[in-house]
Amino acid sequence: MRIALGVTGGVAAYKAAELARRLQQESFEVEVVMTRGAGEFIRPLTFAAITGNKVITGMFGAPEAGPANVESAIEHIAVAQRIDLLLIAPATADILAKLAAGIADDFLTTLYLATKAPVVIAPAMNVNMWEHAATQENLGRLRARGVRVVDPDEGYLACGMTGAGRLAGHESILAAVRATLNPRRDLEDETVLVTAGPTCEDIDPVRFLTNRSSGRMGYALAEAALARGASVVLVSGPTALTPPARAQFVAVRSAEDMSRAVHKHLDPATIVVMAAAVADYRPAMQHPHKVKRGTPHQTLDLEMTPDILTETGRHKKNRIVVGFAAETERLADHARRKLKAKPVDLIVANDVTKRGAGFDVDTNVVSFFARDGAERDLPRLTKREVADQIFDEVLRLKSTFKKAHGRANAGQA
Ligand code: CTP
């Protein structure tokens, strides 16, 4: 298997040398493509010595190689065709922006457009650059196109700041490379219905009640299910995220809309995962015009919204239904109670007050409470990793229920 390792100009470029060695040890043929910026941090000779291959440093060959020739001018097409995967590590904010916009002004960006091979990127940058809306939007666009992103770690950064932005560890990057080259297709026979994001309950034409859900957990579930071969319907409240291109996307606003959309798409679903943070109450009446300032006290009269999870569970049939429990205290008690009260097979509980869990972060810390009594605390993982663990648990429950069903039928015979 042949990998093009794109190295861009950040302090973490030196780590790419060790990464190239590890890939080489795993029997990958590695061809390194350096951007001009990368050359400021590390010499091509290091990579050439590690990989035993020529290092590509520019669009038209290195200047010392003499005038550009036809061979070097079309080299990017040749590389694009012969590689099985393009890995960019470290990926700077600049390269993310170029890839997202489809700019092709050097060898690496041209290679990205020219190749049909899967792409994995491992960003590394200053925490503020990482968190900037522009960077996050670019990442969203790349993810929606199927690019696998290995999120950076948190910690001490070269710029002296602390936070997210350190290049992910070699093990995480290698795991993403392996998973991309040998994707599990164990959800090929499944249709997965995912709910995501918050709901918005209108008070009047300009005001509404909502919550802090970003939708990231639900979108990660949709991406993981697609990668494992499932057909996916993503029913989502308003979020800032780009939906995965291959999902059937249904945009909704209120709990009522979400309930209707879920019922409409329920029939073919074999797995339902309700990651949406649905409003439990909505204004009892919506004012047709903007409510004016005037009365010293205003009371908002609220009524209950439909409990979509419970309604779905009533028409459960053989499908596996997963609910979430977002809690701020006594996590296990609340989760066990929800498992009993709602017709669900698995409750994924998270304490949203914990660091690295809950809203607006890329990671989550969850516990599983399954219908067959199994309980498990997971470590802090990226939302994509949590999504994969949820589907592993769903498949485990499916086979457990199938076996129990088989035994019951044999008992009756
Ligand atoms: N849910 C739903 N419909 C609602 C409220 C919640 O389908 N009207 C789903 C959520 O998508 C989630 C699960 O129910 O999967 C649990 O949501 P949560 O708000 O934590 O629990 P509630 O049942 O509303 O209980 P409580 O408010 O007591 O925590």
Describe the model.
This protein is α/β, with parallel strands linked by helices and 413 residues long. The chain is built from 14 helices and 21 strands. The protein folds into two domains: 180 residues, Flavin prenyltransferase-like (Rossmann fold, 3-Layer(aba) Sandwich), CATH 3.40.50; 218 residues, Rossmann fold, CATH 3.40.50. Helices cover 36% and strands 23% of the residues. Strands 12-11-8-13-16-17-19-20 form an eight-stranded mixed β-sheet, with helices on both faces. A five-stranded parallel β-sheet has the order 2-1-3-4-5, sandwiched between helices. It has a two-stranded antiparallel ribbon with strand order 6-7. The radius of gyration is 24 Å and the shape is globular. It starts with a strand and ends with a helix. About 1% of the residues have low confidence. Cytidine-5'-triphosphate binds next to helix 12 and strand 16.
Features:
413 residues, Rossmann fold, 2 domains, 36% helix, binds cytidine-5'-triphosphate
Low-confidence stretches: 63-68
Structural class: alpha/beta
CATH class of the largest domain: Alpha Beta
Strand content: 15-25%
CATH topology of the largest domain: Rossmann fold
Total number of domains: 2
Q: What is the CATH architecture assignment of the largest domain?
A: 3-Layer(aba) Sandwich
Instruction: State the CATH superfamily name of the largest domain.
Output: CoaB-like
Number of helices: 14
Helix content: 25-40%
Main sheet: strands, sense, barrel: 8 strands, mixed
pLDDT averaged residue by residue: 92
Question: What Rg is obtained from the alpha carbons, in whole angstroms?
Answer: 24 Å
Which term fits the overall shape?
globular
